[in-house]
Amino acid sequence: MTDRNRAVLSGLAGIRSDLEDLYRDLHRHPELGLREHRTAKKVSDALRDLGYEVTGGIGGTGVIGVLANGDGPTVMARADMDALPVREQTGLPYASTVNLTGPDGAEQPVMHACGHDVHVTSLIGSARLMAQTEDAWRGTFVALFQPSEENGDGARVMIDDGLTARVPRPDVVLAQHVLPYPAGYVGTRPGPFLSAADSLRITVHGRGAHGSMPQAAVDPVVMAAMIVVRLQTIVSREFAVTAAAVVTVGSIHAGTGPNVIPDSAVIDLNVRTYDDATRNQVLKAIERIVRAESEASASPKAPEIERTAAFPPTINDEEATRRVADAFAAHFGADAHTIDLQTASEDMSEIPKAFGAPFTYWGIGGIDAGLYAEAARKGTVAQDVPVNHSPAFAPVVQPTLDTGVSVMTVAALAWLSG
Fold first, then answer.
1. What is residue 204's three-state secondary structure?
2. pLDDT digits (tens, 9 = 90+) for 170-189
C-alpha cells in the first residue's frame, strides 16, 4: 500500500458504520429509473455536507458533486442509482417491500436486484474519504450519480441536459459493478468488457381464421415458430466458434384462444455482442431471416422490426485500465484479478464519450466467500450463486462495501497526485 493510499483509506474504519446504515436504507427504499428522487436527495445532501459543489436534477434525477483541490488531473467516478421491477426474495431484515406504479398504471414490486445500492454507497464512501484527506492529494474529484441505467437512457438524458457544460472535463472516468464473484474479489479487463445489447420487437402478419380451417389462414404462430428456430442458427452457423454473440428470444405473444388463428404474432428478442462488426452482422441476419420466413409463409403484409432498446459495448481504455490494474495489484495483492468477458450491458460509456475522455470499468465481488467456495467445490456455481437481477441477489454487506470504497478510492488516487 502506498503512503498516499494509506493516508486516505485510514479513515474508512471511522465511516464504515455510517456507510452500512446508508446501504441498508438504500436497499430498503429502491426507486425505478428517472424516479430516484429520494436517493438523489440523500446523495445531494451527503455531498453538500462534505463541501462538494453539488448540482442536482440533471436529466431529472442525476447528481454531480465536484471537489476541487488545487492543480492536477480531474477524475470522474460514476455510480448508478436505479432499481428493478422485481419482488425481493432474499429474506433479509432490510429487504425491500416497496411497490411502485409502473408505466402501465399497475402496481409492481421493486428491489435493488443489481447492486446499485452498493455502487451509490461505495461512491459516497470514496467522496467522504477524499474530502477528509485533501492534504494527501491534488486535483479535482467529481462524483457522478446516474439515473436509469437499467433502461439504458440515464447517461443520455444527463448528457442531453447539458452535463458536459456543468462539470470540468475529466482526464479519466471510473466506474464499477458488483457481480456474482466472492466478496473481496476485484477484476479488471482491458478492451471489451461488457457486451452491446439490442432489444428488438418483431411483428409478423398473417390472416386470421377458425382453428378448424387453417386452409383459409396464413398462420402467424407457425411463422413465428419457424423464425425462432431459424434465429438459433445465426450464432451457430454464421460465426466461427470463437466469436462472442448471443441471440435470445424472450417472449412470443399471439392469439386469444385455442381455436382461433390470429392475424399477427409478436416476438421480443435480445442480442449481445462485443464489437460493431459482429453486432451489425447479427442484426442484418435477423432482418434477413424474418423477411424470408414471412415471404415463405405468404404473409399478406411485410413484418415490422423495431429496436426497443440499445446499449453500447463497454470497451475499456487500455492505458487507463493498465494504470488501475497496477494500482489494484499493489493494493489488493492476490484479490486483484483479470476478469472474464461479461454478457451484461451498460450505458455508462456514453458519458466519457461525450467528454472525449478515456474510461475504465471494473467488477467487484459481492457473494459470501464461503457460499461461493462451496458451490465451486460442488460445481454448482450457476445453480447456487444468485446473479444480478435475481430476486435472491443481495451482496453481503462486508467486505463488499469496504472493497467498493477502497477500489474506487485507490483508482482515483492513481491519477490524483500528492
1. strand
2. 999 999 999 999 999 999 99
Task: Compute CA distances 282 → 88, 230, 342, whole Å.
Answer: 35, 13, 19
What pTM was estimated for this model as a whole? 0.93
- Going 296 to 299 to 300 to 304, the CA torsion angle's sign is negative
Buried b (16+ CB within 10 A) or exposed e, 302-319: ebebeeeebbbbbbbbee
Q: Which three cell numbers stand for residue 299?
A: 404473409
- C-alpha–C-alpha distance, residues 130 and 14, integer Å: 14
Helix (H, G, I), strand (E, B) or coil at 29: coil
Instruction: Show the cell assigned to 51.
Output: 463541501
What digits encode the pLDDT tens for the residues 311-360?
A: 999 999 999 999 999 999 999 999 999 999 999 999 999 999 999 999 99
What are residue 267's DSSP bridge partners?
Answer: 202, 252
How far apart (Å, rounded) are the C-alpha atoms in residues 150 and 179? Answer: 15
Strands 209-210 and 260-261: antiparallel
Name the DSSP class of 337. Answer: E
Task: Give the helix ranges, DSSP H, for 147-261.
Answer: 154-160, 163-166, 220-231, 233-238
Distances (CA, A) of 216 to 206, 207, 213, 227: 11, 8, 6, 22
State the pairing for strand pair 74-80/139-146. parallel
Cβ atoms of 80 and 146 within 8 Å: the answer is yes
